[in-house]
Amino acid sequence: MLGAPFQCDHCWFVNINKREPEVSSLGDTRIMQYIRRVNLDVMWSRESGTVKNILGTLRKGKYLSEELGLIPVALEVGPWLVEDMSACK
């Protein structure tokens, strides 16, 4: 979640296009297929070195914030907000 937040295909579509996908539209269907492929690639093609690097960077930021007396940045874990919350199914 820290390196690539997950969001369902439908929510991606709504956030990108600012509208609901049309089931009868070939273009919308293809875009949904591309979004699904990207979602799967993001989840399954994580190099262990990349994951370790992201975690190390987050730990370093937390340490530096504490050293400087700053409040560490809170990273929200969860899907991104959909502009039209009624669109998320």
Radius of gyration: 17 Å
Count of discrete structural domains: 2
Number of strand segments: 0
* Helical coverage, percent range: 40-55%
| Terminus-to-terminus distance | 20 Å
Question: Helical element count?
Answer: 3
Order of helices and strands: HHH
Strand content: under 5%
Helix/sheet category:
mainly alpha
Shape: elongated
Overall average residue pLDDT: 80
The biggest sheet, with number of strands, parallel, antiparallel or mixed sense and barrel status, is:
none
The parts where pLDDT drops under 50 for at least 5 residues are none
Can you characterise this structure?
With 89 residues, the chain is mostly helical. It folds into two domains: 1-45; 47-76. It is built from three helices and no strands. It has helices at 9-17, 26-44, 48-67.
Give the gist of this structure.
By secondary structure, the protein is mostly helical.
Structure keywords:
single chain; 89 residues; mainly alpha; 2 domains; 54% helix; elongated
Question: What topology does this entry show?
Answer:
Blueprint: H1 9-17, H2 26-44, H3 48-67
Helix pairs in contact: 1-2
